[in-house]
Amino acid sequence: MPLSCARQARRSLWTFSARSTNAQSARAIRIHAGGGSGAWNTDARHHYSTEEPWNADQTLIAMDQPGGTPGLLFLDGSTYLPVMPQCANYNRRDDRWHPILPSARINADGALLEWFDVVKCRQVRSWTLPLPVSYLGLTNGNVSADGRFVALADQAANMFVVDMLINHIGPVASNAYNGWTATGVGISASGKYVWVHYSGDYSRIFDVDPNTLALTPHPESGPICHGVAADGFVYDLGHQDVGLNPFDNDEDVMVGQEHCGNAGQVVNGQLLGHVIMVRLRDGAITSLMAPANEAYAYHVSLRATRRPGWAYVSYYEGQEGRRFNQEVIAVPLDGSKTVERWAHLHTDTANCYRCEAHPVPSWDGLRLIFASTWSLDCDGGCGTQNIRQDYIVDRQP
């Protein structure tokens, strides 16, 4: 995507004009680490592909800058200028924006779960948990789409669900299996299921009892590579996210990087690409991409809940000549394999986790934020891995 650059000194941003492949206008904006009070770090960016940086009404963006001052910074959701720091009385642990309440962050770790208003600097709600948890879903969790349910876990394979609307905490269940280590626990978008992700990219689904919140393995019937379908295991996915599929009666789904090693192969009558959707109810899989000359998919985000039915996908760099090499695209969940091409990432991820793009759409799907070193195929003005900053692609009318 050819870019032309013009400095906006007043905002301390770099603004780019671009033309997307489907002829929609777009702008790409770099959030520049400079200006204002406090101390900017060379690493100033959003958190991860499954965590929405914009708040519920999209007026604020949460940005991490480890080692900077403040470490958690809130930007204006439209101008991208700093507007406020972390509240002095906010003991941030592992937090997410509430999907409905614009100023509330859902914060968890140890024995604490709370909603904290980061604008008024006050705790809104809190729960004392039955056991000390490891962050919010082992750092990889989220809340249900309506903000009602959250699944929490510790490092000893214990987990439970909290109904934050009626203040009910469900019984503790075990996700221990075959000696595997759980690396993520989360609630599905509807709140009907809990997913557990194990080291090696094995995923397991549990039913949530709507009355007691008790967790039991959900028997599956789709193709799997590890575990046992009757114990709740589904097709292996990496860097996955969960959401609802409006093309399939709002079924709960998980979309991620194909991780059984079957890209280019036929499984259950489908030729698989590198992006796979799993229906949680039965484990049925759908390939969202065609494998012909496709690069290797990286991270997936389903955070555009107000543009339902779209997965935003990044691809690895270093695959010259292959489709979508170091790009971020959007693909619908209808299986049509239609592609929206959003941006080239220009980031060098070699041995650098915080250099990974981790693209996330805004709630309405009209903007996309990604991190980059801007050091690959950059045609002058190149950066280095030492400076990681956020970029925004804007397709708003």
UniProtKB/TrEMBL annotation:
Top-level taxon: Bacteria
SUPFAM superfamilies: DPP6 N-terminal domain-like
Record-given protein name: WD40 repeat domain-containing protein
